[in-house]
Amino acid sequence: MRERVMQFGPGQALVGIETPSAPGENDRKQPTWVFLNAGIVHRVGPHRLTVNLARRIAGAGFPALRFDLSGLGDSSPRSAATFQQAAIQDIRDAMDHLEHTTEASRFVLCGLCSGADNSVRAALVDPRIVGIALLDPYVYRTMGFCLRRRLQQVVSAKSWKTLAMRVGGVLRRSARPRRTSVACDLDYQPSPPQPMYVRPIPERSAFAADLLTILDRGAQILVVYSGGMEDDYNYAGQFDAAFGRYGLKGRVSTEFLPAANHTYTEMAQRRRLGDVLVAWAEGLFPAASANPGRQVGPPG
Amino acid sequence: MRPFFFGRSERLLFGTYHAPAVRSPRPGAVLLCNPFGQDAIYAHRIYATLASKLSKLGQHVLRFDYYGSGDSAGDVHEGSQAEWIENILEAHEELLASSGVSRVIWVGLRYGATLAVLAGQSLRRAVASLILWDPVVDGAAYLQELTHMHTSFMRQEMRCWRPSGLMGSEALGFPLSSDLKSEIRAVDLTGVKPPHARQVTVLTTNQKPWRERFRGAVAGWTDSTHWIEVTTTSPWNTDRALNAILVPMDVLDAIVARVQEMP
Fold this sequence. Notes:
The complex is a heterodimer of chains A (about 300) and B (about 260).
Chain A: E1 4-8, E2 14-19, E3 32-35, H1 49-59, E4 64-67, H2 83-101, E5 107-112, H3 114-125, E6 129-135, H4 143-155, H5 157-172, H6 204-216, E7 220-226, H7 238-243, E8 253-257, H8 267-284
Parallel strand pairs in A: 3-4, 3-5, 5-6, 6-7, 7-8
Antiparallel strand pairs in A: 1-2, 2-4
Helix pairs in contact in A: 1-8, 2-3, 3-6
Chain B: E1 2-6, E2 13-18, E3 29-33, H1 38-56, E4 60-64, H2 81-99, E5 104-109, H3 111-120, E6 129-133, H4 139-157, E7 170-171, E8 174-175, H5 178-185, E9 200-204, H6 211-219, E10 225-229, H7 239-243, H8 249-261
Parallel strand pairs in B: 3-4, 3-5, 5-6, 6-9, 9-10
Antiparallel strand pairs in B: 1-2, 2-4, 7-8
Helix pairs in contact in B: 2-3, 4-5
């Protein structure tokens, strides 16, 4: 099984790598997975995540394409009003190209972080997209999150040390200690450095409405949250709790991988993520389940 | 720019060839040798920028991924230092064929510079120049650095992260097999056979304890050696630099200047 370079879009400006599905699979009847850039990392992905996932999913019988959106990696920029509009057009160009060069007609988009955001935007406007697998999409806190977070603070040795230092300081100044807030206040610990690119977060209701629109036209959605989102997502049922009142509960497949960081740096966590994607894909499209987990790609 | 696969059919390599972007190209070509692991992810934009600058100066440029890395076939654990050295020689032949020129310069970054030195020992015909950007001179120290990078990165990523019993078997998502670690640990560029290069340039952006020893060793490789210290460069091999689209232009300008100075 051999990967091949694809160039497409205006002036062949977009660059990608197609991974055919494993030999013996009836891959042309299965949706093709299209993997999108995570942030501004080129199509190989952070720690080679995207290559690993594309080959893993192809090993389960689903052809895959990983490509660079315009202006990223090896793809040239294109003129568009916004990067988001350009991204949607890039994705549609990729699907057009796959339709013409293969027999693909249905697609699953998979993306991490901004790749998840772009997956949602494209699925809203293109009915060929029958599924989206969102890795660390937008996240919204819930009461359950806050309670767990507060509990973590209570049992944390660092919290007690901080409290002791505060109390000590207060006593030394002979001032009355402030009452501990019961609100979901995470300011007491520094957040990890934030990415430099801007990721605007929509209102929860707006994001819910987008997902409902996609579901209502028959497409499927998987969301996977990593432990890298620990400042905003800390338990397995948080997605359903956050969106229950919008009618999303039970309609979206969810997974929580607390041992993984945002970019799935460690190999064991990448394998676990691959397992999740393959299981979801096989559950939705069972015809291609003969060889789960087989690695494919260029010979080797 | 032409992305393509090349090499042995069972272990294909991914490369990107940049043709000269001028009407009267200079008769020269440049091969860019990737660093290892996550460094190669960080270096993608840097090498793409460098390739673009060099092609605009009339150079043929090839950047490529070693077996088991980037878009090339296989997984890292299936590769080895010996194979990646072979990959450089394969890419060199590919560049000669694509460009039709015989004057080739190799540029290597970090472990890629080290591999270039080791590959250069096997060349039948000397390359015009080797440009080594912060080469890994001491393999054992490099392994420690990889482990430290992994640990500090993961601790920054997750408050609750703890090193596992497999610590040292992977570096920022790339496996370090026992065989690979043995190969890397044995690296000592202060005591290797000289590469076949008519000129050698070392670009350093940091002060390493082996600096003077290595400088002495390089002086014995060829009659034409250059040592360039760039002290103002911005860091490039971090997530922060990657997300901020930071490219160390001062180093790239120094490399371009060296290429332009070649006869």
